[in-house]
Automatic annotation (TrEMBL):
This is CD8B protein. It is found in: Membrane. Keywords: Adaptive immunity, Disulfide bond, Glycoprotein, Immunity, Immunoglobulin domain, Membrane, Signal, Transmembrane, Transmembrane helix. SMART domains: IG. One of its GO terms (biological process) is regulation of immune response. Signal peptide: none annotated. PROSITE patterns: IG_LIKE (PS50835). InterPro entries: CD8B, Ig-like_dom, Ig-like_dom_sf, Ig-like_fold, Ig_sub, Ig_V-set. The gene is Cd8b.
Amino acid sequence: GFCTNLLLSQTPEHILAQTNNKTEILCELKKEHAGVYWYRWSQERQNFEFLVFSNPLGKALYGANISQDKFSVHGVSSHTSYSLHVSHLHASDNGTYYCSISQSSQLLLGSGTRLGVVDVLPLPPKTTQAPLFKKPLWCVTKSKAAGKKGACSPLVWVPLAASVLVLLLSLVPAAYRLHRLRRRLWLRVHRQ
């Protein structure tokens, strides 16, 4: 096994955005790669969807039915930092977004960014002291979890399993074509 967050750092973990606005997700790579893939897991539709691939030269390859007006990837000159921009936000954009790189015939996924799109953003809490105390506690908890050797978050394994499922499902049409070809040959042989 492997921990993908050793090679990819994805921020932020959660985004709550308003309909018709835009947002940005950042993916930092530990070293330069041939490019970054972006995927979205939709809990509602139960599917893992390829959005866009962007290489260091800025060329982009979009998934089927993916709007170039909605999604764009911006990289920096170091080729180790990529950001996915999502505009014209709508409820259908809800989901968990993952940046990914290909290494040794494996897709390594980032930790994921959960995006929620709402018509009206909730009001911030009125207390000013609470966030100051919550943040250091959260950081301590996270560093303890990161200290455990070989411990991977379910946020890493769930999308990994989903990507394997997507790859297996992509083999279904090929298997169907092979089945039809065998059937045709069998019919041809038995007609003679």
